[in-house]
Amino acid sequence: MLLVGPRCFRALLAVFLLLLPSFVGAEDFAAQMAPTERRHTLFGIPSGTGPHTRILIRDIYMMASNGKTKMADWVAYQLDASTVTGEGKTSRKWAADPWLPADETLEPADYDGANQALQVDRGHQAPLANFRGTPNWADTNYLSNITPQKSLLNQQAWRLLEEDEREYVVRHGGSIFVMTGPLYEREMPKLPKADEEHVVPSGYWRIIAVPALAGRPAPIRVAAFIFDQDTPGRKPAATDAVSVDEVERRAQLDFFWTLPDAIEEQLESGVDGGLVSELIGQ
Predict the structure, then answer these.
(1) I need a surface site. Which of 190, 216, 222, 254 has the fewest CB within 10 A?
(2) Are 174 and 214 in contact, with CB atoms under 8 Å apart?
(3) pLDDT tens-digit readout, 28-81
(4) Exposure pattern of 159-190 as b/e (b: 16+ CB <10 Å)?
(5) Which helix (H) or strand (E) holds 8?
(6) What's the pLDDT score for residue 282?
């Protein structure tokens, strides 16, 4: 087995991604990387995913889909006022992801009985409501973008933080960039009717990056949050905010790695209490 250090890994990742065939159809991945970097992420896509992942790039989000867990290691998207505002009718019509092999994704029937047995919902990582202003909102209902999320979390703190994102872009204008994903820190019960091997998350992380105003020393401001599956029904709180370093440690991922090391370290080591307050109103 070849072992490489973090810097070598990042370089190899960049080369690998450019050579990787795209899962979006006829266009190749290399041709899509430049616009995708601008459209979905800032300062590098998250690195650190294992050999079971596929990068999927859609118009409204991108993800690293994990064929072993059957969940996305991370989902990333950009949000602005135009994406969140719309009067068209939306619905939750669940479907297996057509871009994935059948043995790498769950199907709607796999969630049968899960709400009653485990008190879980089909929880979006890229929320449907964030994209009601686009023609592609239905893409959020693919099960690659869904995890079994405890109902109290999904319907309270998680949902309210998603609402805070939408309110922030409407109130402040401009764009924000969001990355979200699962944690696997303890074993959780399986979906009772699923006929495929999968892993249910024990918690979730969310990173919200706001491009900074001109003249600021850092190019972005960042707020990161972690929620356990057993978070009680409540609003998101300042105590849910953590450093990006904490998310990296627990999710085993690396974010914003194209930034100069000194800026990355400053950005990721602390909690931007001002931005957290602006987002959640505390």
Answers:
(1) 216
(2) no
(3) 333 333 334 458 998 999 999 878 899 999 999 999 999 999 999 999 999 999
(4) bebbbbbbebbeeeeebbbbbbbbbbeeebeb
(5) helix 6-19
(6) 66
Q: In this structure, what token pair is assigned to residue 1?
A: 């087995």
Is the sign of the CA dihedral 171, 57, 67, 20 positive or negative?
Answer: negative
Residues 6+ apart with CB under 8 A from 241: 223, 224, 225, 271, 273, 276
Q: Could you read off the pLDDT of 219-230 as tens digits, one per residue?
A: 899 999 999 999
Question: Which residues are the active-site residues?
Answer: 124
Strand partners of residue 40: none
Name the token pair of 103: 């043995």
Which pLDDT score, from 0 to 100, does residue 14 have? 46
Query: 3-class SS at 222?
Result: strand
**219 burial via Cβ count (<10 Å: 0-12, 13-18, 19+):** middle
pLDDT at 215: 66
Residues 6+ apart with CB under 8 A from 80: 169, 173, 174, 175, 176
**Which residues have CB under 8 Å from 264's CB, separation 6+?**
256, 257
Task: Set out the domains of the chain in order of their start, with CATH numbers.
Answer: 20-280 (3.40.570.10)
All residues at 6 or more sequence positions from 106 whose CB lies less than 8 Å from its CB, including other chains: 70, 96, 143, 146, 191, 194, 196, 198
Please state the pTM of the whole predicted model.
0.86
Calpha distance 114→99 (Å, rounded): 25
| b/e sequence 55-80, b meaning 16+ C-beta within 10 Å | bbbbebbbbbbbbebbbbbbbbbbbe
Angle at 127 between CA 75 and CA 276, to 5 degrees: 80
